[in-house]
Design goal:
209 residues, 5 strands
């Protein structure tokens, strides 16, 4: 999107897919060299690496699963394979905001270990349902609504959601408690403190936000 602009990139994918795929592979090759160079330098100290492309809007996927599978998924799969062959003990976290539930089987198929951020305010991203369907295949990082609840709710609302996410995503392990996205400067301090207090109270393990 940086190279072509979001609108033009979607036009490329629809009307000139050969160009779009060539561009994706070029960018993917640069990213592969970047990841492997970093792992050469510090790989022994790394538990997971993050990659991602936002595939969802608030209400639906940005592209169809078919378009993803034919144009972009092979590049992602190649990158994940290279990372895991280079550093077998490193986990891969895929970041995508929005309504991405329809892509989760593809993430599993590619070898993604951790899904971030579980944007609960987006369509079709119910945490309990996602845990039931994919909890034995993916670890989840995120889930506490920083889009609305942490910005607009009271501290007790934040605490209640932290408890709910731990209950929904925590059973059996495979959950790292965190906000559903970065916490901005419009989130009240008392709500941030309520998040951490509730995490300790209900037995979660909050990632530093």
């Amino acid at each position: 999107q940086v190279l072509r602009g979001a609108e033009q990139l979607f036009i490329d994918m629809a009307l000139d897919p050969d160009f779009a795929v060539t561009l994706f592979w070029k960018v993917g090759g640069v990213l592969k060299e970047f990841y492997l160079a970093q792992l050469d330098a510090v790989g022994d100290f790394v538990e997971w690496v993050e990659m991602g492309d936002d595939l969802g809007s608030q209400g639906a996927p940005l592209i169809s699963p078919k378009m993803y599978r034919t144009q972009l998924k092979p590049v992602h799969a190649d990158l994940i394979k290279a990372i895991k062959e280079h550093s077998p003990n490193v986990k891969v976290m895929y970041h995508s905001c929005g309504a991405v539930r329809r892509f989760l089987p593809d993430f599993v198929d590619m070898g993604v270990d951790i899904l971030n951020p579980i944007q609960v305010a987006a369509a079709d991203m119910d945490p309990a349902e996602i845990k039931a369907e994919f909890g034995d295949q993916l670890c989840f990082l995120g889930g506490v609504d920083s889009q609305h609840n942490m910005r607009e709710g009271a501290p007790q609302d934040v605490a209640a959601e932290v408890k709910q996410r731990i209950q929904e995503l925590g059973p059996g392990g495979g959950y790292i408690l965190s906000s559903s996205h970065n916490i901005g400067d419009d989130v009240p301090l008392e709500n941030i403190l309520a998040f951490f207090d509730a995490a300790k109270r209900y037995g979660g393990y909050p990632l530093g936000v």
